[in-house]
Design a protein that fits this description.
This protein has helices at about 10-65, 70-80, 90-105, 110-115, 130-140, 140-160, 160-180, 180-195, 200-210, 215-230, 235-250. By secondary structure, the chain is mainly alpha-helical. It has a domain at about 50-120: Tetratricopeptide repeat domain (Serine Threonine Protein Phosphatase 5, Tetratricopeptide repeat), CATH 1.25.40. Helix 5 (about 130-140) packs antiparallel against helix 6, helix 8 packs antiparallel against helix 9 (about 200-210) and helix 9 (about 200-210) packs antiparallel against helix 10 (about 215-230). It starts with 10 loop residues before the first helix and ends with a helix.
């Protein structure tokens, strides 16, 4: 056998070698396709994973909150906000959940700050304003409470949301009463009572009338309320109030 000649390789070896080259070529092609695809769509792929993680953290926060572990819930909500939600509305919900949780803990200033960090579009429904306005009020900022409370009421009126109309009017009534602006307080308590005549606002209307030295009107208001609410705690409260006023007016 000359130097130019090579021994003939067994057919099985040739087949294995050919298979190896085929696998190597396929692997190389796969790597090239992955690099190309990642360059084109890598950001979308990682966003998908990130969105799933953000959603998982948010749901974990909801579970913790349902179990009464509010501090852990807040931690999970913050972790969720570090990610990217597929739906921007979910991000807003997560931010509101932080404010709501802080409010439940009585950390009103922190709650107010959490709500303030959200964009206006995060408060797209009347019910989204309740915790925000109340937190700002309890934190002691009456001017901002008035401004936000009126925005809350305007949205509730626009959507004819009776529950939120009652709550917003009642909150503004409380705010003005605290500031000794009795005429304004009466205005908002009346509005709340018109939306829910059997509610607490009906008694507050009577209280404001009495504080404004309009006792006869106040007693008439209580009589109308007692006729509408024949039993229960509010009925008893109105009865005690009426009796005290009448006793105070006797010689």
């Amino acid at each position: 056998m000359t130097a130019e000649e090579t021994p003939e390789q067994p057919s099985s070896l040739k087949g294995a070698y050919g298979a190896f080259l085929g696998v190597a070529a396929a692997g190389y092609l796969g790597i090239m396709l992955f690099v190309f695809a990642f360059g084109m769509y890598g950001e979308r792929l990682t966003q998908g994973v990130d969105a799933a993680c953000a959603e998982a953290a948010f749901q974990s926060g909801k579970e913790a909150e349902a179990q009464g572990n509010i501090d852990l819930a807040i931690q999970r909500y913050h972790q969720a906000l570090e990610g990217t939600f597929a739906d921007p509305a979910r991000r807003h919900e997560c931010g509101r959940s932080i404010g709501d949780a802080l409010f439940r803990l009585g950390r009103y200033q922190e709650a107010a700050d959490a709500y303030r960090r959200l964009p206006p579009e995060a408060f797209s429904k009347p019910g989204h304003w309740a915790g925000y306005v109340t937190s700002v009020w309890y934190a002691g900022d009456y001017r901002e409470t008035e401004r936000l409370g009126k925005a809350w009421l305007a949205m509730a009126d626009a959507e004819n949301d009776t529950k939120q109309q009652v709550w917003a009017n009642y909150t503004l009534g409380n705010l003005y009463e605290r500031q000794k602006k009795l005429h304004k307080a009466l205005q908002y308590y009346r509005a709340a009572s018109e939306h829910k005549p059997e509610g607490q606002a009906g008694i507050m209307v009577a209280r404001m009338l009495n504080r404004m030295d309009r006792r006869a009107e106040a007693v008439e208001q209580l009589d109308a309320f007692l006729a509408l609410v024949p039993s229960g705690e509010l009925h008893q409260s109105a009865q005690r109030l009426r009796r005290a006023w009448l006793d105070a007016g006797r010689p």
